[in-house]
Fold these 2 entries.
Entry 1:
Amino acid sequence: MSTESVAGGPALTPLFVRLKLSLLRNGLRQSPGRTVAYIASVVVGLLFAAGVVLGLIALRGTPHVGALAVLLTGILTLGWAVMPLFFPSGDETLDPTRLVMLPLRPRPLVVSLLTASLVGIGPFVTLALATGSAVAVADGAAAAVVAVPAVVLVVLVCAALARAVATASVRLLTSRRGRDLAVLGGLFIAIGGQGVNIAAQKLGSPDGLSVLEPLGDVLRWVPPASAVSAIEDAGHGAYGRAAAGLALTVLALVLLLWWWQRTLTTLMTSPDSSTLQAVEKDSRRSSDGGVRGPARLLPDGRTGTVMLRTLRYAWRDPKSKMSWATSIGVGLLVPVVSSVQGNGSIYTAFSASALLGMQMYNQFGQDTSAFWMVASAISTPRDAYLELRARALALSLVAIPYVTLVVIGTSAFLGDWSSFLEIYGLSLALLGALVATGALASALFPYSIPSEGNKNVAPGQAAIAWISMFGGVAVGAVLSLPLLALTIWLHVSGRHDLLWILLPVGALYGVGVAQLGLRVAAPRVVRRLPEILAAVSKG
Amino acid sequence: MTNEPEQNTGRAEGDGERTGGGTAVPAVRIQGLTKRFGTQVAVAGIDLTLPAGRFIGLVGPNGAGKTTTLSMVTGLLRPDSGQVEIGGHDVWQDPVAVKSRIGVLPEGLRLFERLSGRELLSYIGRLRGLPGDEVDKRAAQLLDVLDLSGSQNKLVVDYSTGMRKKIGLAAALLHNPEILFLDEPFEGVDPVSAQTIRGVLERYTASGATVIFSSHVMELVESLCDWVAVIAAGRIRAQGTLAEVRGDAPSLQEAFLELVGAGRRRAGQNLDWLGGGAR
């Protein structure tokens, strides 16, 4: 290979900036839906940034605004640090292993990549927020002079941090574990959102900003927030502190760039994760194979085998885990939140069985195209019935104790034990009804769950998923009507002494209706095996 | 190749459905099989009779319809029209008889990858109704023969391509089927794993079982198979013993290129700058 193409070739930095611009443009060009989503997210991002900037400017001169600006910069930096971990595909230029075959030196590569990562909506929003923070805390000419380099430094440190973290963790991100983590990213963001929600309520209270002071005192010495506090210090005439704050941020930037360049060099000259995985030792899971521990208690034959597989998948498959965690979390959250807000009702305990019952939907979609293994072992309605029943049993193994705990917990929390038995009975009936409709929907409306990314429905199958879910839940509710009618009749006719029978009747009704649903679904599964396989293999 | 067709009668005795020692029931009989996806015709009417007890290669270029055909034959894809019989049983009318007799290794479909290799075999064996101890015994032997014992507790999702093909083969063999369907079993497999797979398949056919596998590597088909069907553009272009299909051509590769009409296409006339020279 000749070296002249490197020395005499086009300058690297404009090339990477153009690459980044092309990627941004192509993001717009995919499907109309993607384009709309893309533009919407840009607009929302810009509106959010504008709102925060205006808020910061409005807060200018209030007592604790310094601490707020410092904290905001800290959160912004944290966001840049974790973003590449949860959205590795967000910026395709982040993965330096794509460039490994090109004859590039690390130092010019670092400069070019850093410049490229300053292009985009994220850096623009960061620049706006940093400027807003600077305006909020700057007071006087000296502060204004410090503000200019401070804002630039904040943006540079954020961009360099994201690049360095992405480079250092690219091994993890391109490995299977990293991709699993990315799937769970949505969950962390949902939890983080709740935290922000609670924090915002607290800060909104009178004099709420003073809560920030202790945190601000620490953060003002942590770069790049130290650059923002340097602006405030300069305004107060504390030039020594201001210089120290700026110097800290410069030092952080230099250290980040040095670390990034080192990891980049290592990364581009060592084997990638696929090679490392292949030679990895067989160290996981103890080696006696077979069935161990509590799994021994499962029944023999197809039932126990399918149950064990379903339960293992609930734990090991990121999509299943996410779905279970969401159901369990939300099922608990609804009664707890509504109780805390003071409008609690024992009827909110139904959310537990409703959400857990939803787990029965799209059973075969959860298998992905590996459903062919199940299909190749189903020849009779009996096989299909056993398969569905085992999945329903695995679900019940979690759902029944969970529903019991939520109903008891809600009753205890509200001190409303008078309707405990009827609610418990109705919950079990609802669970049974959802298992029944879920089994039928699994047979009639299967759809693919893409195993990567945050989507839970394959493109083009959203309508099937909605029909399956909402139609199924509506039918499930209708199936619970007889028991509801019995409850109302007992109440209206004043037979309160007999309300206890709703528990045994509800439990029996739940088992019966579930059984009926499985029996109705099983022959349809057998008849539709190839159609189900085709529907669940689109992920 | 050492496997004569007569050997399969020894295996078929326990079957009770073969017609004495005379002409054996063909392993697979396909009549008028068609499949179209939208406007594209993937399989345009295939008639094919594959004898039992042979090592059969289904060859064709990419997109010829090999995978579609094998999926329909094994009951994983519903044909638009046509009939498929396996060992004399209709695939769609009599799935009980068919599914217990066949083993399948499809291409492009996943396994339950969040199980370890060992757990996967334990799962599929019990799913097929074999007794637990028997499953564990066979699984241990298959893992050993296929050189997977060292990775049996690793999740299949962390396996390499060759290891996936091998664990898929083990899953297909676990219930000791009479007929094994393998879609591209050597695709992306390293030479060591390929040799291991080959050894297992040769041992399997030596006892009278039938292997039907698709491939576009002619050297492989020529060295492994004694019966070949050539498929191109959704139709059968030739079928018969290796010698019949090869005819006068010096190799199966030549015969194949002739059959699919790609005989004399000159590549690279316009690539005169290529060749690692000055620039």
Entry 2:
Amino acid sequence: MNTLSQKPERKPDLLVIKDLVKYFPIRGGLFKRTKAMVKAVDEVSFTIREGETLGLVGESGCGKTTLGRCILRLVEPTSGSINFMGQELTELRPRAMKELRREMQIIFQDPIASLDPRMPIGNSVVEGLAIQNIGTSKERFEIAINMLRKVGLEDYHARRYPHEFSGGQRQRIGIARALTLQPKFLVCDEPVSALDVSIQSQVLNILKELQRELGLTYLFIAHNLSVVEHISDRVAVMYLGKIVEVTSRKELYLNPLHPYTKALLAAIPIPDPTIKRERLVLKGDVPSPVNPPSGCRFHTRCPFVFDHCSQETPPLREVHPDHWAACWLVE
Amino acid sequence: MADNNKKPLLEIRNLKTYFYTEDGVVKAVDGVDLEVYPGEVLGLVGESGCGKSVTSLAIMRLISKPGKIVDGEIIFDGRDLVKLGEPELMKIRGNRISMIFQQPQSALNPVFRVADQIGEVLEVHQSLGKRAGDARAIELLKLVGMPDAESRAKSFPHELSGGQAQRVMIAMGLACVPDMLIADEPTTALDVTIQAQILNLIRDMREKFGSSVILITHDLGVIAEMAERVAVMYAGEIVEQADVIPLFQKPIHPYTKGLIGSIPVLGRVRDQLDVIPGSVPNLVNLPPGCRFAPRCQARKEYNLSICTEKRPALHDFEPGHKVRCWLYQDDEQHVAPLKAKKTAKEKK
């Protein structure tokens, strides 16, 4: 018993994703035939454990937002399996899916675009409850006020409209709205990247506090690795529709295995002028996901590339316990 | 590092740039003093709406209606840019001072080929012909590390990626070997791996051409990597100015301290980030006294009343380290608490 309890207990899986694929067709010509496919998410597998934050990091166009939306089936995945608390989401009928959405919510990047400009925010915040037919409108208003208090807003704010708020306040409203249904799982899609630094820390702190208080599980999507490292327990790194590395945040920072992760870590400017770092600057741009490179998708920019890389796609393998990487160089 | 014996290349004195809008007068830049020395990289950092971009546009004299430079001097190489007429400004813009913008794709003209746009700068300032201009454009594109420069020179801007477009902007900015390059958030629209490329490029070009650089950004990480001296802006004024190492190691203005404490740093995970409560003031209706006072924790700790009554001036705290804060400076009827503490210690 004692030896067991000393080991950090591995929490049960909340969400298991297997071989998830999302291709967007590019249509053109007279009969709008499909000319090509944008391979936004290509055979992605990972798990999210109960109560943890999984950070999903990658550059623009790598498919991280599409992946987040596929999980909620806001975008229908092309193939693959999404298992949430033992239920296979891809097979659920719309009504059952709607029921289940109580448990899984999303916060969007742009808080202005995601709030109805003509609806007082008190109503916006509880629209989810109205859709799910929970409570009377009076009860819902009570809940709205409670939620607003939780994210640091005042009661009188409930009657105001989105344009009356600052960016940071709007993002808090987005958080409040996502939490009214008391979900277990929250997808945070770049929740702080539109905010100024001094406001960003307010929102990050609120997200952390709420997680502790309500036992939430987050999928935190961002392009800023410093932010992801701050909030996550584990981090998944994505490049051109594929996950190239998944591990705990500490391991990722101290012992990155994939060359892309290494380059990403080296590219982030550190706000400390006394630090002199070895620069690993990648050449070239991110290739198009319409025509991704053969084999390992990173091989066109990888400083350590060799013959085999362009021939065969490296699988995501567990290199060390709980440290997965997809690279031919990693033994 | 600011060499005090050197004469500044650019000296801004009490610059005020206001915008006359329907909602009132927006005091975007309100009394900015700044100097830039030859060959240095000056970082100008602040949050959105603090006036850092307007300052740079004022230097280029690109403020248009409803905006106006209402007061102040911008002395560049002995001449006051505020007083110059348009023909004279044309000789300076793009030639002696040039600028690169945040959105390279929208700063380039979509209907002209890249080589023609770079060639235009050379045609205006160096009277190069079409063929010589094209050849020089390709040379410049190679210099800024454009892959396959010959064929890219014939491309239109929409055919370029964000990083490539920014390289074109830099090539254009450097075409006439300017004395000063103003880079307004040059990497904000780019991904981190591309940002690293562009920052490296700006650093190399600065070494090659010896131009001064004003680097405007909201990213303290970029500032720490690139700048030699830093000015921190808040609500239209400079609140702190110092060499880069003292600024990060020993920030003294409560806003600078808050800003540095509020960003997550890779590899140094803390449980909680510092928070600056509230948000940036409205530039039409500025608070009386210090503009940071409504959000300032230090003011509350020391229970200072002057902060909300009288606007502090930018004072020397130490040689080369300026700050605009009542915690550190005296007024006639007022002894600054931190200074008072220091003198009390000295008396003992």
